Amino acid sequence: MEITIDWHDNQFNVNLHGAPGSDPFLSIKGCRIVEGSKGQFVSYPATKNEKTGKWWNHVYGGEKFNEAVIKKAQQSKRPSHDAAKARQLPKQGSGFDDMSDDVPW
């Protein structure tokens, strides 16, 4: 099994492949690495029960799997905060005011 990581700002997807270079057979989206009182851990996607306030994880990973995910995530190229912020900003002159006046409708 091969594990790959795809970063998206401060979150990442964990992809599991049967062999290196093959398409993933499972993707876990929206993961993060969190620093807890006992060290780093993988925070998998969860849903909050609005009535009780309790969070319910969608995915659980074993200790060795989580260690491998953290190692891969730390080794992979994470986009810098500035690069992620720049992707979200509109480009100069991208408003409607710079549209051509010769639109045919």
List keywords for this structure.
105 residues, alpha+beta, Arylsulfatase, C-terminal domain, four-stranded antiparallel sheet, two-stranded antiparallel ribbon
Topology:
Elements lengths: L1 E7 L2 E7 L6 E13 L2 E5 L2 E3 L6 E3 L5 H13 L5 H8 L17
Antiparallel strand pairs: 1-2, 2-3, 3-4, 5-6
What does this structure look like?
This protein is α+β, with helices and mostly antiparallel strands. The protein has one domain: Arylsulfatase, C-terminal domain (2-Layer Sandwich). Helix content is 20%, strand content 36%. It has a four-stranded antiparallel beta sheet. A two-stranded antiparallel sheet has the order 5-6. The longest helix has 13 residues. The radius of gyration is 20 Å and the shape is globular. The N and C termini lie far apart (55 Å).
State the name of the first-level CATH class.
Answer: Alpha Beta
Name the CATH architecture. 2-Layer Sandwich
As residue ranges, the low-confidence spans are: 93-100
Q: Which H/E pattern describes the elements?
A: EEEEEEHH
Q: Roughly how much helix do the residues carry, as a percent range? A: 10-25%
> What is the approximate shape?
globular
CATH fold label: Arylsulfatase, C-terminal domain
